[in-house]
Specification:
The complex is a heterodimer of chains A (298) and B (338). Chain A is mainly alpha-helical. Helix content of chain A is 73%, strand content 3%. Chain A contains 12 helices and 4 strands, in the order ααααβββααααβαααα. Chain B is an all-alpha fold and 338 residues long. Chain B contains 16 helices and 2 strands. Classes of the chains: A mainly alpha (298), B mainly alpha (338).
């Protein structure tokens, strides 16, 4: 493989990794505060993309507004899911919560399936995204530049909220000990709502990027992406936002380079995230960032 | 003979009688549904062992059912038929040597599933069980990826067909009864009490000397074994398998069955299997177009699944116990000891 191809792959993997990271942040934050694997997270992303599609196809809104609709829609869906399905089960055994999450995930997939059908539909994006620049052989599209930058900015925003505001302090406290947080006079449900809102919004952004890069959308698109993003979150250290970014990037790099170096095994690329997940659980359950919630509690 | 034993024996006799009646008096369509229900009872009761009794959410059934179905199919199809069938690649030479009859094939399916279960469970149960759900969900995908990408073994996306069929209601029913009895025996054994202890309070169980890692792994492997066997039966029953059959919807149906019937109740699971599979047939109306009193509703494929998921969420929020809770039918006859 020559240098140009290699650089090309690196650039591609940056944008793929960023998309995983955006979705992984939602997983990691929800897991941090509720200890819940939010199975519906990937599907919230999918619903976000469909909101964007809806805004563009029915109301003929420009792309920028469609993104806002996607984020807004996903935030509302995320909050509603928490209110309807998770909140009544805060005191229930964990398995009930997980089963409800699966029910929610299945519900979102199939309601979209009923409304739009299961065949992939084209996600039309402005021509701006389809132009290419040629830097002495390395082809660069606007997305590979925009996606990592937007991810980085959003990341900074999240870190600012988490470490510089009162709400962020409450989120971190909630991850540490729910009961004490309540005793301190903080409305835990409001904070959890905030976490769902932030996570879902980021997932919608990630989903729209996905729609731009792979310009078809389908009701089941969130399942595999969600699974991989969760693996990325575990790889980085679940509960850690920076870890989610690192895990997402590592997963993105590995996938792209795997296919580049071993194209004949390209069909197995979806298995990489899974192998990462198993290896991390075997050798370093706390992930790269090393926050071990399971141990820290006892 | 204790009261419970008498009751179990009576239940077995009654089931055999009902199967005989069904075989002689029902049409083919109803018999197929009953056979499906029997296979789903195998799958759901074994699934309940890890989810309901041990309290570890696992999403593995579609993966292990796929493994079991493929192993059984490969063991049953004769080598000549294999040479004819494989279109994408030449079948691996060792595949042609495999050929056996139904019962050993089902047994091997179970063993292969159980070994895979051990490989999955080992990393997961070393940490807490939370990750089991996501690892097993991923496993379902991986099995699919492998089934599609190894045409020399699985015939790729085309799948295997012409699996010699010999499963009727009696076969499926006998296996279902055996599974239920074995599960009941496990539940009331030392291991079963260990599993329930892990479910109710893992730390306390561990403090009382229960080896939680071992118990959880044991439950998961047992569950996988019977899912493999059930998968093998499903393959023989359907006579055609392809990677597309074993999607997450299969697991989802099983989740609804055990949640409706009651997490941790084998009797409830049986009731759940009848309700969900029978009801699922009935709800097929939802997916089709409706012409009723001049009212026309277009076909909405997927509407049935929406209804299923709403049922699941509603049951989980408002009636978490399901129909039977954690009780068995025999518990209703048991005298309360003071």
């Amino acid at each position: 493989m020559d240098l140009v191809t290699f650089l090309q792959q690196i650039i591609n993997s940056f944008s793929l990794g960023s998309m995983y990271a955006l979705i992984a942040i939602g997983y990691t934050m929800v897991y941090g505060v509720l200890r819940l694997i939010n199975f519906a997270h990937g599907d919230i992303m999918m619903v976000g993309v469909y909101f964007a599609f809806f805004a563009m196809s029915v109301f003929a809104l420009p792309f920028g507004f469609a993104v806002i609709v996607a984020v807004g829609g996903a935030v509302v869906v995320g909050i509603l899911i928490d209110k309807i399905a998770y909140k009544p089960l805060r005191k229930a055994p964990r398995i009930s919560l997980l089963i409800t999450a699966i029910g929610m995930s299945f519900f979102l997939e199939n309601i979209v399936n009923v409304l739009y059908g299961s065949t992939p539909i084209a996600f039309s994006v402005p021509d701006f995204f389809s132009q290419t620049y040629d830097f002495s052989g390395v082809i660069v599209t606007p997305t590979v530049i925009i996606v990592p930058i937007v991810t980085l900015i959003l990341m900074m925003g999240i870190l600012y909220i988490l470490y510089r505001t009162k709400y962020g302090m409450a989120i971190r406290a909630l991850a540490f000990d729910v009961e004490t947080v309540k005793l301190m006079g903080i409305d835990a449900n409001k904070i959890i709502m905030l976490v769902f809102a932030v996570g879902s919004g980021l997932a919608a952004v990630g989903g729209v990027f996905w729609g731009i890069n792979y310009p078809t959308i389908e009701p089941l698109m969130g399942v595999l992406i969600g699974l991989k993003a969760f693996a990325a979150a575990v790889l980085g250290g679940i509960g850690s936002v920076v870890g989610a970014l690192l895990g997402g990037l590592i997963l993105g790099f590995t996938e792209v380079l795997f296919v580049a170096f071993m194209p004949e095994y390209g069909g197995y690329k979806d298995a990489i995230a899974f192998i990462f997940l198993i290896l991390v659980l075997l050798f370093r359950p706390a992930g790269i960032m090393g926050i071990n919630f399971e141990k820290a509690r006892f | 003979m204790s009261k419970i034993k008498t009751l179990q024996l009576m239940a077995i006799m009654l089931t055999i009688l009902l199967m005989w009646l069904a075989q002689n008096h029902l049409d083919d369509y109803s018999l197929r549904i009953l056979t499906t229900i029997a296979i789903f009872i195998i799958l759901a009761t074994s699934y309940n062992l890890i989810n309901g009794i041990t309290g570890q959410l696992s999403l593995e059934p579609n993966g292990f059912v796929a493994v079991g179905a493929y192993v059984t199919a490969l063991l049953l199809i004769s080598s000549d038929a294999k040479l004819d069938m494989y279109q994408l690649a030449e079948p691996s030479p060792w595949l042609l040597l495999l050929n056996t009859t139904l019962v050993p094939a089902l047994f091997f399916s179970g063993v292969v599933s159980a070994i895979l279960a051990f490989i999955l469970a080992f990393p997961v149960f070393r940490v807490r069980g939370d990750y089991l759900a996501i690892v097993t969900l991923g496993f379902g995908f991986i099995i699919r990826v492998f089934a599609v990408n190894t045409p020399a073994v699985t015939n790729g996306a085309i799948g295997l067909n012409d699996i010699p069929s010999s499963v009727n209601l009696y076969w499926a029913g006998a296996f279902a009864m055996a599974t239920v009895l074995i599960m009941l025996n496990i539940i009331y054994s030392k291991y079963g009490r260990g599993m329930k202890a892990v479910r109710d309070d893992e730390d306390a169980a561990s403090a009382m000397g229960v080896n939680t890692f071992k118990i959880k792994t044991y439950a998961f492997m047992t569950s996988a074994f019977f899912e493999g066997v059930g998968g093998g039966l499903l393959a023989v029953f359907l006579t055609t398998i392809s990677p597309d059959i074993f999607t997450f919807f299969l697991t989802f149906q099983l989740i609804i069955i055990i949640v409706l019937g009651g997490l941790g109740s084998m009797t409830g699971t049986i009731i759940g299997a009848f309700l969900v599979i029978g009801g699922g047939e009935w709800l097929r109306v939802l997916d089709e177009e409706v012409n009723f009193l001049g009212l026309h509703i277009d076909a909405h494929p997927g509407m049935r699944m929406v209804v299923f998921s709403v049922i699941l969420i509603v049951v989980m929020i408002f009636a978490r116990e399901g129909i039977m809770g954690k009780r068995e039918l025999t518990d209703l006859f048991r005298r309360v000891k003071k």
